[in-house]
Amino acid sequence: MFGPILSKAITAGANKTGSWRTGEKPKFLQKDCIACKMCVLICPEACVTGEAKNTYICDYEFCKGCGNCAAICPKKDIVMVKEEDK
Q1: Separation in Å, CA 63 to CA 17, 40, 56
Q2: For residues 62 and 17, what is the distance between their CA atoms, to the nearest angstrom?
Q3: 3-class DSSP assignment, residue 79
Q4: Cα-Cα end-to-end distance for the chain
Q5: What are phi and psi for residue 69, nearest 5 degrees?
Q6: What is the Cα Rg of the chain in Å?
Q7: Is the pLDDT of residue 69 over 60?
Q8: What is the Cα–Cα distance from 84 to 74, expressed in whole angstroms?
Q9: Are strands 55-58 and 48-52 parallel, antiparallel or unpaired?
Q10: pTM to 2 decimals?
């Protein structure tokens, strides 16, 4: 009889995954932000953080460029921009 196969969970915090982003990354304009925190809540990698009131940033070492933050922003204060060549 076979039992379940268990493996240790690994989080994005342990693996910097931003090196294989989709080709775009979010740019936080920080002009019309109303601090709704929807970008923080929807980010699958939890790489969006708030430094100060209405000032949110993205840790690009973990961002995959999914665009969820830009899509959910009610003020369209986050835009997706083309990834610069390294």
Answers
A1: 7, 12, 14
A2: 5
A3: strand
A4: 51
A5: -65, -45
A6: 16
A7: yes
A8: 26
A9: antiparallel
A10: 0.76
| Token pair listed for 54 | 């209405």
The answer to whether 56 touches 41, Cβ cutoff 8 Å, is no
Specify the amino acid at residue 57: I
For the chain, give the number of residues. Answer: 86
Look up residue 45 and give its amino acid: E
* Paired tokens of 62: 């973990």
Q: What is the pLDDT of residues 9-48, one digit of tens each?
A: 455 456 676 667 788 999 999 999 999 999 999 999 899 9
Closest CA to 13 of 50, 48, 45, 44: 45
Going from the N-terminus, what domains does the chain have, and what CATH number goes with each?
30-81 (3.30.70.20)
Using CA atoms, how far residue 67 sits from 5, 9, 23, 26, 76, in Å, is 33, 25, 11, 7, 12
Distance from C-alpha of 38 to C-alpha of 49, rounded to nearest angstrom: 11
Q: Which amino acid is residue 64, in one-letter code?
A: K
